[in-house]
Every structure is written in C-alpha cells, then in structure tokens.
Structure of DUF2304 domain-containing protein:
Amino acid sequence: MNPVTHAFVIAAAALALIAVVEMLRRQRFRERHAVWWLLAAVVSLVVSIFPDTLQFAATAVGVEIPSNLAFFVSVILLVIVSVQHSSELTRLEEKTRTLAEHVALLELRVRLLDAGSGSGTEAEDDRTDRGR
C-alpha cells in the first residue's frame, strides 16, 4: 500500500471513530446502540494502522483473501445491529400500543365523568370534537 493510500485509510478510520464518540458525547446515540459502532471503528483504526493484522487474522481463520474477511465481518456486524434495532422497534411498538389503549380508556372515563356531572357545555364539546 502506498503511503498516501495508507494515510487516507488511517484518516478515514480515525474520522469514523471520532464521529461515533462525538455522537455519544452529544447523546445522539445511546450506549447500548453505540457499542457495535465503537467496536467497528476501533477495529478499522487498528487494521488501518497495522494492515498486517488483517492478513494475520485471515490466515488464522483460513480465508485466502484478507479483504473477504473484512467484508464478511462487516456484514455480520450490520446483521447484529439490524437485529438489535428490530428487537427494540418491536418493544417500542408494544409500548406505543399499550399507551394508546391507556389514553383511549382515560378519554372514555373523562367523557363519562363529564356526561355524568353535566358540567360540560355544548361549546366545550364542539371544540373537543373538532380537535380530533
């Protein structure tokens, strides 16, 4: 690898690591979501600084072309992140459904209490109905 390409690869890996750390610092990522991205950025930085580590890892695993190992590990990482996000999405959808049911029950209770007390005026009822 020529020196310019090597410097570019190191700079790109360092920039990725800085971006992930900065997003963590600004609370754009939660820690549990950033773990895999931090791991990927650190591994990328190590491999970019010491390219022979990828060759060593490929030989140790039995992969002939080191870039194939890098792509395989990248795909595995993306699958893990995707599964993690799908799991959280499912959990959040369940919470949203439960909250919507609670809100609907509370709205029904408020309407029944208003109707039972007779304190609501027709003008208030019209404004409430138009807001929905």
